[in-house]
Amino acid sequence: MCGRFALYSDFPSLARSLKLPLAEGELLPRYNVAPGTWITAVRRHDDSAQLALDALWWGYRPHWADDKAPQPINATVEKVATSPYFRGAFAHHRCLVPADGWYEWLTVDGRKQPHYLTRSDDEPLWFAGIWMERPDGKPGCAILTEPARGVAQAIHSRMPLILDQQSLEPWLDPELTDRETIRQRVHHLPHDQLTHWPVSTRVNKPVEDDPAMIEPVS
After folding, report:
1. φ and ψ at 83, to 5 degrees?
2. A single Gene Ontology molecular function, please (predicted)?
3. pLDDT tens digit string along 2-17?
4. Which of 3, 83, 99, 204 sits most deeply, having the most CB atoms within 10 A of its CB?
5. Total-model pTM
């Protein structure tokens, strides 16, 4: 799954990779991004064909759902295209969530040890996501997950769906709505580009947020 991640790459580097227009302001580095907060994402608004770096609420609940409906932070690749709860967003409201890495917990001797997973070349990651207007009128999103691959398998059974550079544009293409077509055009980042290391249990507390969060511990 993906329940905590870090994003500390600057706005210009993210914008350049997707050829986004530069805007005023900057992204504040976050080393412990938790669910139920505003996160940075790339999406197209319904009334615009232009891509935008935007703020989405990390918690998905479609506008037609009632107040008791779930607010998942993740959607599995196995069900996102067919589940009535997600399929509309998968077809028409896909987004990208930039990250520099994410956290997973490995049980060792009865204790959960957090690990930080990231690219070995220090380039940003792009998580595949879906979004939908929530009942309160604000946009909410979920990050797609898939079975863990490569070194990530040693830490957790699932991982975020990370797209390679060539898949970013097709994933955000509003003309692509068919599941099989999307599967043919979109590919995940090769697993041999990932690495990980154990980090402090401070990450367990969402209020903790500083560069030391991603430093290796023995």
Report:
1. -65, 130
2. single-stranded DNA binding
3. 899 999 998 877 877 7
4. 99
5. 0.95
